[in-house]
Write a structure and sequence with these properties.
By secondary structure, this protein is mostly helical. Helices cover 55% and strands 6% of the residues. The chain binds zinc ion (ZN).
């Protein structure tokens, strides 16, 4: 699904378009924010009552709030796509579009990258 932090537009194997509709990744961003924010709160929250200096706890919280979403960026998109595909399986049109996309190119370069 990814090449570094760059996401492929379609699956290299079957051509399935990852972004199924405009604004598709909004739910992935929300999922990422909620899980990493909750995890950061679970880590930093108890430290607020431990007697550590407030500046140290704040710094740790800010660093975690900045790094965790970046570390979970790819996972949140993959998890969201899996959840969505489970709830809303690919339509015949999506399968056909993927098949036509892959059959029109030479493997293994059957996928374009989404550069933005
Ligand atoms: Zn595929």
């Amino acid at each position: 699904m990814f090449d570094g932090l760059t996401m492929w537009e379609t699956c290299p194997a079957c051509g399935f378009p990852f972004e199924r509709e405009p604004g598709y990744w909004t739910s992935a961003v929300t999922l990422n924010f909620m899980t990493t924010g909750g995890f950061a709160l679970l880590l930093v929250g108890p430290l607020a009552y431990s007697g550590l200096p407030v500046l140290l706890v704040l710094t740790l919280g800010i660093v975690l709030a900045a790094l965790l979403p970046l570390l979970c960026f790819r996972h949140s998109k993959a998890i969201w796509l899996a959840i969505d595909l489970h709830i809303r399986p690919p339509t015949t049109f999506e399968r056909l579009a993927g098949f036509l996309h892959v059959s029109g190119q030479h493997p293994p370069a059957g996928s374009r990258r989404h550069d933005s």
